[in-house]
Amino acid sequence: MRKLLSFAFAAALALTALSCSSDRASILKVYNWSDYIDESVIGEFEQWYKEHTGEDIKVVYQTFDVNETMLSKIEKGHEDYDVVCPSDYIIERMLNNGLLLPLDFQSIPAEFNYIENNKSPYIRQIFKEINPEIDANDYSVAYMWGTTGIIYNSKYVTDEEASTWSVIANPKFKDQVLIKDAPRDVYGPVLIYLKQKELAEGKVTLQELMWDSSDESIAAVEEYLKGAKENVLGWEADFGKDQMTKERGVVSLNWSGDAVWAIDEAAEVGVDLRYIVPEEGSTVWFDGWVIPKYAKNVKAATWFIDFMCRPDIAIRNMDGTGYVSANGAWEVVESQIDEECDPVDLSYFFGEGADSVRVNDVLYPDKSVIERCALEHDWGQDTDKLLGMWSRVKGDNASSFTYVFIGLVALALVVALWLGSRSKRGRKRSRR
Fold this sequence. Notes:
Layout: H1 2-20, E1 27-33, H2 40-53, E2 58-64, H3 67-75, E3 83-84, H4 88-96, H5 114-117, H6 121-128, E4 140-153, H7 159-162, E5 177-180, H8 183-194, H9 196-200, H10 206-209, H11 215-227, E6 232-236, H12 240-245, E7 251-255, H13 256-268, E8 273-276, E9 282-290, H14 298-308, H15 311-321, E10 324-325, H16 330-334, E11 343-344, H17 347-350, E12 357-358, H18 367-370, E13 373-375, H19 383-395, H20 400-422
Helix pairs in contact: 8-11, 11-19
């Protein structure tokens, strides 16, 4: 026990010394989502950086689970992270609030400038839409991306039923619909569904809807979601895909990355799950690398982002996380070719010669699908309105699943208290 404590104390001292070291030129602090990288590439970067710059570098790698947690540490705590990986709307917020440093990729020799050489034309264009006045391409590099759509069980839900957002309110699926506990990712698709007439008449565009935080639109989305309350099995952060594989739910409003995992897992137990972007339209999402305002090692941060864009590294991160790389190199899409898949038009993403590629269209949507998708935006001062609507919807939509879950938690707490009262030595409960 003493040896263990001594080791822990020594490790703590080492970490403290590392974090407090004044020699930040040899330390790179990376802040990323949990389980969002093939961690073996970190050591390779350290070696690669040494080979090409002649300088030693040690990566201090930390993770977060919520965008706002990361943002608060930088915005309020002035944390000196060198590289972080926020989602699209947070990139927009950081850009608007002057929390990002411009990326100087010209400082990297052309022969291994993987960022400029492998940027997708689609990514380049859509990042320009993040802020019409400031080109986000100068401040961020896309890492992973995907769409928001519907995962469904073909045994209980037809392709036609799943092809429209009305499926979440279809009375046929009472207590069988799972919805992401992500207000921004739910609001956009529902608003698109409700504004079909205006879209068809050309009174509004998909992109304009993504800026719409009017009281009228918020009220319409709130009313529609409350009308679907009898169907909602649960508002979930991560358990939805698992519930779908176990057939406890038959419809899930979810992300394409989770859909790939769920489809593969379900297939192993004989359950046929499918994914579709409804015909009315939907949203696309991105996570990207940025260098925050308070970074201390801008040079190593720039080289790290470049290394993440090397095709073989992008492929390994894609395989290791299950998400889709935003890298536009042909080697990346080539690694995903499956002759059993139907041809997909990916010319929008990879350019000429990619108009008929046999890949999984859940990973890479066809051009016709992307044409009816738009990028979500940060609401700025109106964010509280969105969160307020979401709180009211969830509060008024406690499903039978919710009540059962609450009952089980209450029972568990009673049992734990009873056991604790019988124990001479109490223990703290871990919190998720």
